[in-house]
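README, section 4: Worked example with a bound small molecule

Sections 1 through 3 covered apo chains. Here we extend the same pipeline to holo records, where the ligand is supplied as SMILES alongside the sequence. The molecule in this example is S-adenosylmethionine. Nothing else about the input changes; the structure line simply encodes the ligand pose together with the chain.
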Amino acid sequence: MAYDKQQATHEFTLWSESYDRCILQWLLFGPSHRALIRRIRAVAGDRPVRILDVGCGTGVFAARIRAELPAARVCGIDLVSGMLAKGAERWRRHAGHVLPVQADSERLPFAAGTFDFVTCANSFHHYPRQDRAVAEMHRVLRPGGRLMLIDGYRDAPWGWFIYDVCVAGVEGAVHHASARRMRALFDQAGLRGVRQRVHRGPAPFLLTEAEAIESVSAIHPPHFRVASPAPGREAVS
Ligand SMILES: C[S@@+](CC[C@H](N)C(=O)[O-])C[C@H]1O[C@@H](n2cnc3c(N)ncnc32)[C@H](O)[C@@H]1O
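The generated complex, written as structure tokens:
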């Protein structure tokens, strides 16, 4: 049976309690966040940039961006309000620079061209319609902006065992896309200059990155009414 958003909500509402303390923070999430920050810095230096982090969870990555790239503004979206709520203290600490919004990766509540970077770390395998999510991420990037997406690398035997056997055994029918499939999704969404890098380690992961083209809204018109986020309303207390 295909993994769906109700399952994701159930899983992460339960997991939110212990999420920030789990061993994956050390094995996978921390290293993947550092890889993304290195890439953002390599592209943008210390310039002020607007970053959308899709599937932001409890905001650990957003807080790391603030520590490493103080001029950045980060908006984090997550499907599961329990995950956002668990990060309340973190969101409060960085208020004014970081904004949590409850939303679905397949329907991003932002106008086209809003962000310089869209990041997505360790979340993509939960999306039932990965093609829609990539199209949405592309739509909200400004022309020349970058999508940087990290997820478990399942093409090598060790990665296959971790993600397709162990993780899928615990989470159900999640889908870690192969490098080839990820590239095809990026190409299909009209992103250009796709590059991929495998990070080997105890939990290998794949970083796929590409640039947004000039007139993306012609390719991916929003399939919902765009509402500007009202900061007071989404802030999680
Ligand atoms: C393993 S956590 C990763 C959190 C964070 N990106 C990190 O690296 O620490 C996956 C996150 O994806 C979120 N998620 C799952 N399905 C989603 C969807 N359709 N749209 C947005 N977020 C989703 C979950 O609620 C969860 O917070």
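What to look for in the output: The CA atoms of residues 153 and 204 lie 5 Å apart. Residues 5, 8, 12, 29, 55-57, 60-61, 78-80, 83, 104-105, 121-123, 126-127 surround S-adenosylmethionine (CB under 6 Å).

Section 5 describes how to batch many such records.
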